[in-house]
Amino acid sequence: MLRPRVSLAARRRPVALILFIWIAGFAIAGLGGCTPARTPLPLDDDDGAAAPQAREHPDAEVALANAPAHPSDAPNPPPAPPPVPQTLSEEALPEIDVLPPPPPTSPNTATWPTSPNAPTAPNAPAPTAIFPIEAPSPLASIGVATPPNVAAATRLAEAAGIRLAAGDDAAALEQLERAIAIDSGNPYAYFFLATLHLRNRTYDQAIAFAERAASLNRPGAPEWTSRAYALQGNAFESAGRFSDARKAYARAVQAAPNNLSALAGLTRTGAPAPNAVVSSPP
Amino acid sequence: MRRLLVGLGLGAILVAAGLAVLAWPMMRGLDALVVDKFNGRRWDFPSRIYSDAELIYPGIDLTAAAVPQRLARLGYRTVAGEAPLSKGDMRRSAAGLDIFLHDFAYPGEVVIDRQVHLDLQGDVVTAMHDVASGEELFSLSLEPESVGGLYDKDWEERREVKLADLPPLLPRAVILTEDRRFYDHGAIDSVGILRAALTNVRSGEVVQGGSTLTQQLVKNFFLTNERTFDRKLREIAMAVLVDRRYNKDEILEAYLNEIYLGQNGPQGIFGVWEAAQFYFARSPQQLTVGEIALLAGMIRAPNIYSPYRNPERTRARRDVVLGLLRDEGAIADDAYEAAHAEPIRNEPPLAANNAAPYFVDFLRGELQALYPSELLNSRGLGIFTNLDLQTQQQAVSAVREGLAALEHRYPRLAARPDGQRLQAALVALQPQTGGVIAMVGGRDYATSQFNRATQAHRQPGSVFKPFVFLAAFEAAQHGGEPFTPISGLRDEPFDWHYEGQVWRPDNYGGRYLGDVTARTALEQSLNSATARLAEHTGLTAILETARRAGIASHLPEVPAVVLGAGEVTPFEVAQAYATIANQGLRAEARAASKVVDRQGQVIDRHPVAVERAASPEAAFLTLSLMKGVLERGTARSARAQGFTRPAAGKTGTTNDARDAWFAGFTPDLVAVVWVGFDDGTPLGLTGGEAALPIWTAFMRQATAATPPSDFHPPGGVALVRIDPYTGGIATAGCPETRIEAFARGTEPTTPCSAHASASLPAAAP
């Protein structure tokens, strides 16, 4: 911007005063512990740079043991999820994050690992009860007969999953919207969209996208169907719709009986645990 | 004598003092103006609207996806030979296609100095890689195309650039051609004025101006082009004020951003950055010496020296500037020779800045509800949409050619004594994202800006019927009486009693089929059978279903509404059909996907937002009936016209054939076409005759780039091969079989009773 040559000196005093007030304001705000409000969706790329949240639960047994039954559904979903309580209760269920672990190094053969000992992000919120079932990489679904748009969309979805895991929600959203634009039936893209919305607490969106993902998964990939239903269960649960959550978890277990996340969800929401191996994560 | 001289001297001093006293307030006023303009926002920057970014990936057919046309519209130039490519160049060879991408920043993606190579087999991309890194690429975005601008009065396209970011030769060339003593004079160049005066006297006319860059800037900023003494005085005064307050580089930078450099249709090209884009599809930093000389030479008369008007005159002018640069030592002899040999590229840009005027109006309306007009018109926002310019052009062509064909075939439609012309509207949406892909609001925006796609409320006729079936399937899903595609309906005249009145629906042509299945009722668009189903399902449920799907207009709760007696816009129909196509998940239609500020920061994002409007099973069963409309029903002629991929839809014709509709979709694209007269004059044609050919022509082109895909049944739907006449599970003895969709639990369990034999597998297709 152009500045008049004559006015610089005259401006110095007010500028210094403004700077002083500004710095003082920051200091006062810092003492008062002000924190910015969380927005439903990232508005720009900067938002995506926020620290990623916890993605793995280190201890299944503790979470399962602490989970009480839920005899009835809350009539009205809470407007915002409550903080993680010391003891779980009907009114205050923990928010549950579902994020895939970091991507495999060999894209066409590896699976998405689910190590229970994976480190959590520093300063992450209290761990939550999630053990995503091991599932083949989306890239494994690409074969020679895969239509090119489907292959491209699957690759975009897979890349978006990586961005999500890195906390870059804005970039992930761009890729996921492009993926579904070129392949309206891509289950992985819908799954990661649901994941993103669950993380951003837009539960209605997470529920709808998870359902779409589950309905599109092919019979040959029950793990992804199960993951999608478990994620939907998480979203229902976080929204206080426990009856719906139970049904979703049950579907997840039906698709893949060893989905510990879904089993834990079933237990938390008051359904009897089916006969499945729940003792420890793999 | 002495007294007289003293008197005269005193008088002169007094007059001068008086003038100074009188002029002082004026100078103060002018000074305030100068400071205000220079220190505030100097220009209004119109918001620019962008299309969606085209995605290229292995397996895509470049021709089918119209990639060459897209690249041409983006200003990419085809070059031959082996020379290294420059930004914006592309080269096709036996080895494939090389593209040196323009630098661009798209939210979530920044491309700088990127050259890519595409391996091709014919026109099909087999692999892609980044030339510099060798990295294999699985998808590649082209930069979005400019669709248009939002501005107040004049469309001044301009991007502000810092002097430090320009190649030094560019300002030097401008100074040499326009004001070579710029750094030496104090706003007014008396030497230059004398030289211009002498030149003008010699030639007998005004051929040279003596205005400095500062004067030109002041004139453009504050004054008009009128040639009056008063204006000239003000110009001089303000130039002096500007020169006193600001340094030369600041003035030069403002000048280079302000200067007018030509016209692109309604869009004025201002500043060197915008001119470099318009004439060379490059940023100023990438300009060659010849291009710099050409731009500098154009300033004097941009439209006369435009390379798009008269390349030879442009070349001559450029060479004059090149000579000046060489003579002043700004360029060496070899650079001069190279620049002198540069061809004048005179292919006008294909940028379709007015390709979607109805869409731009619609977008403006949507945005004005969110932002003040001043912000939209002057802050240089970037508005990203899902519009696809290629699909938009296909839509425009389909409408134009479709209407011309109708008028040719039915001359009565063309020869209206009152001059009214047959009109049409077309809306195309992506059902899974809600993105508007194309919008045509009439046959000619220049003669009628009324957007029939979003503003014309017309009766939908039978286009409304799918919502009757959707509501019936939905009711069955929620514990109502079982209702399947093979459920029986009675197609015969009947009376519907409501609120003390009687309504009797008639079939088209007075033809009744008796007992029919639900499938036949919709495929053949049987009014009576549909009305019976509607009476059974309930008006309230049907209207609520339509509303949830996306019909926003108020519909009267009267029986005739089930046959399309309400009034809706094509856009609403597209939204509601998109919900069915997306298996009950309503993706809110969106005109803009995101808005960025002039620095490229996202200030507003409209992500895909979905809402469950109907169960996936009910939606799938409805669309399975609608698929039959194209296979066997009232739209089967679409197949004869060459549109063969899986699709579903419905024709619509209103009373007296005033409105002709076709609305239909593939899994990835919904399109709605309306044809009619604005004043409701009957067409005398059905939707299948008037709207379907336009829809078919459009869909055939718009879907050509992607492989056909079918609708994926949700988990709650079973596909069973049945005998269509008995409804039983097909046996080996059935002469005709069909795969039918059922909500799980309602599928037939017994074999065909008429052709009992070994059962066929009850598998899905």
Give the helix/strand class of chain A.
mainly alpha
The whole-angstrom Rg of chain B is 34 Å
Sheet/helix structural class of chain B: alpha+beta
- Shape call of chain A: globular
Instruction: Round the mean pLDDT of chain B to the nearest integer and report it.
Output: 89
Work out the helicity level of chain A: 40-55%
How large is the share of residues in beta strands of chain B? 15-25%
Contiguous helical run count of chain B: 23
Quick tags:
heterodimer; A: 282 residues; mainly alpha; two-stranded antiparallel ribbon; 46% helix; disordered N terminus; disordered C terminus; B: 765 residues; alpha+beta; six-stranded mixed beta sheet; five-stranded mixed beta sheet; 23 helices; 31 strands; 37% helix; elongated
Overview of the molecule:
The complex is a heterodimer of chains A (282) and B (765). Chain A is mostly helical and 282 residues long. In chain A, 46% of the residues lie in helices and 1% in strands. Chain A is built from nine helices and two strands. Chain A has helices at 8-31, 60-66, 148-165, 169-182, 187-199, 203-216, 222-238, 242-255, 260-268; strands spanning 111-112, 135-136. In chain A, strands 1-2 form a two-stranded antiparallel sheet. In chain A, helix 3 (148-165) packs antiparallel against helix 4, helix 3 packs parallel to helix 5 and helix 4 (169-182) packs antiparallel against helix 5. The longest helix of chain A has 24 residues, at 8-31. Chain A is globular, with a radius of gyration of 22 Å. The termini of chain A are far apart. The longest helix of chain B has 38 residues, at 2-39. Chain B has 765 residues and is α+β, with helices and mostly antiparallel strands. The model of chain B has no long low-confidence stretch (mean pLDDT 89). Chain B has a six-stranded mixed β-sheet, with no helix packed on it. Chain B has a five-stranded mixed β-sheet with strand order 12-1-16-24-25. In chain B, strands 18-17-29-28-27 form a five-stranded antiparallel β-sheet, sandwiched between helices. Chain B starts with a helix and ends in a 22-residue tail after the last strand. In chain B, strand 24 (592-596) and strand 25 (602-605) form a beta hairpin.
